[in-house]
Known about the structure:
Blueprint lengths: L8 E6 L7 H18 L1 H10 L6 H14 L3 E2 L17 E4 L5 E6 L9 H11 L5 E6 L3 E2 L5 E2 L1 H10 L12 E6 L1
Parallel strand pairs: 4-5, 5-8
Antiparallel strand pairs: 1-8, 2-3, 3-4, 6-7
Amino acid sequence: MASGDQTPAFCILSKVGIPNLPSYEEAYWVADGIVDHIAQPDIASKLVGANALGVASQVVQDILLPHLKDSGFSSEKTGLFAAYDAKNLRPDYFKPCRNGGGMLVEVERGKTLANNMDLLDLWKCHICPDANYLIIIVPKIRKSENGNRQRVFERVVSRLTAFFQYGNEVNVDAAFIIGY
């Protein structure tokens, strides 16, 4: 990946047999639509600008929000975790699937790996009774204060892969990882 490469990265992790479900197809098309959206030159350019030191993930969310709302997502849906002591948990975005279940979208920026936000996002989807698909949007590369470059997208894919291997399955049918 060249530093100026604005082509989104996309990886799908799923349990065996899940890609045959109608809800999977719906989640796939939503995730693919997000990839197409962020590939648009004006959106890609905004995301490159937002992927800088000190910029909050809210800036990235604001870039994606119009598309997500047009796709039927509600922002920071409350009540999804009412069955738990962590009732105040909420995803960045939620959308129910037509055939049951739903999708969580989580947008990350700077602390994806350092604060294990990718693992927290997977855990939220795992315990959410209304969601079985996770769409997580992360930077492909993140520059740190000391000038190092973290390959965030590749690390997130590597970290989440274990949860979709036989015997380790979580209560998430598929994770769609999108790198900007």
